[in-house]
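Aim 2 progress update. The chain analyzed this quarter is reproduced below.
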Amino acid sequence: MATLGERFDLVIFMGVLYHLRHPLLALDLIREHVAGDMMLFQTLQQGSDEVLEVPRDHPFFMPGTTQPPAYFDDPGYPKMHFIEHEFAHDWTNWWAPNAACSQAMLRAAGFSIVAHPQPDVYLCRTAQVPFAGYGPAAVYPSRGEDR
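Predicted structure tokens:
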């Protein structure tokens, strides 16, 4: 994607994420290199449709205990299910996020969700990339060249 040297008003990224071995990297690269304004995103989702509001900073343990926070087990916590072998007789299906994970990954890559027309479809607009002040999110950042 970095070598395209072109941004697009609308990127259509439907039915791709769950086939990728590195899905968050793909979203980072789309945001970094090709998404000019909007992205239409769809992915296979499994698990809960609930979306839990999670804290911005997660403690290792609940205060005063050695117990992890209970919200990690909540059905609405962002989770990505790894498919080791096959899903629906297709060995190229690697991942199945729940709804909370799809939404969290989009935000983490620098997209804001502006519409949610179907349970697994999101219309997104480019937004600030979280933690961009610490450096590029993508492994292959742009070189600052406009082509």
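Residues 2 and 142 are 7 Å apart (CA to CA). The radius of gyration is 17 Å. These observations will guide the mutagenesis experiments scheduled for the next reporting period.
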